[in-house]
Amino acid sequence: xxxxxxxxxxxxxxxxxxxxxxxxxxxxxxxxxxxxxxxxxxxxxxxxxxxxxxxxxxxxxxxxxxxxxxxxxxxxxxxxxxxxxxxxxxxxxxxxxxxxxxxxxxxxxxxxxxxxxxxxxxxxxxxxxxxxxxxxxxxxxxxxxxxxxxxxxxxxxxxxxxxxxxxxxxxxxxxxxxxxxxxxxxxxxxxxxxxxxxxxxxxxxxxxxxxxxxxxxxxxxxxxxxxxxxxxxxxxxxxxxxxxxxxxxxxxxxxxxxxxxxxxxxxxxxxxxxxxxxxxxxxxxxxxxxxxxxxxxxxxxxxxxxxxxxxxxxxxxxxxxxxxxxxxxxxxxxxxxxxxxxxxxxxxxxxxxxxxxxxxxxxxxxxxxxxxxxxxxxxxxxx
Length: 383
What we know:
Layout: E1 2-4, E2 7-9, H1 12-27, E3 33-36, H2 39-42, H3 46-56, E4 59-62, E5 77-80, H4 90-96, E6 100-103, E7 124-128, E8 131-134, E9 139-141, H5 145-153, H6 161-169, H7 187-197, E10 202-206, H8 210-216, E11 225-228, H9 237-248, E12 253-259, H10 260-266, H11 269-275, E13 281-286, H12 291-296, H13 309-317, E14 323-328, H14 331-342, E15 349-355, H15 363-376
Parallel strand pairs: 3-4, 3-6, 4-5, 6-7, 10-11, 10-12, 12-13, 13-15, 14-15
Antiparallel strand pairs: 1-2, 7-8, 8-9
InterPro entries: DHS-like_NAD/FAD-binding_dom, PDC/IPDC-like, THDP-binding, Thiamin_PyroP_enz_cen_dom, TPP_enzyme_TPP-bd, TPP_PDC_IPDC
Family: Belongs to the TPP enzyme family.
Protein name: pyruvate decarboxylase
């Protein structure tokens, strides 16, 4: 990497060689796809990735930890690639491709669903922030990702085959069963209402747990932000992340989804949110324990002491600042709470404790948990 006065530049000859090799690799493919990964952010390559998508015509997916880095209204966007728990019809297109470019991926046990991705190295171009590997062939170093993606887009033949295949197999998703009057609220009904709350003026923060999977299924409107932390699966991360994001982006209204177990780790940050006059909406999902851990490895340690969460926030509020709390047990109460949060109390921190059954989880968590559990419990590999 060449560096002048703190500015990092690509090696020109290496960049040309890498683009030549990658263009040859992709142009001979029948149904190539491109997948965005989380390192695009640090590489400042999100715009270059979109330019590549526009130029190539390829089907475009993102890894789960890159959700929000690629506009979901892009005409060739097919969703989140997350192996067995991908957006519907996305994995089939990615894993059946004869060539795929991954920009800034991180493959760990969580993002690979227990190392169960059906990918082949010889079909892949892996683009990291400062190097490119083409299939089983050479690795080119000293190349900035954004430079490589921008140059590659100018060398590719327009090939929408994979996206056309996606459109052929795509079937619109269904809707959850309608709730009976005063029926206990189901999580899938909750997130149907959440979808309607999103706009270009909102940001979604998803805590480690079932919120990962439910928030991944949200369709982000243009301008809607999205953050979650996958690399370490840090339980309790979202409370502090919500505080920081809301303080930095005061023009946005942050909507956070936090499990009860996670909230207990960092609940005190609510105090700083109130002190700073933040107007975040927090959905505290109270299902009595660490649900994601139950699906990986169950035991009595996953059941936690229940708190009066709204009572705790009221005590922290202590009459200072703008704060509103409510408990929600059914759809009717949820509708009323959302209406209040977005209208009469839109300038307040709004804390909604959503009480749901302990076994009410997404199908994606059930699948993901079983696969990660199998991977984590395997015998050690001496090699």
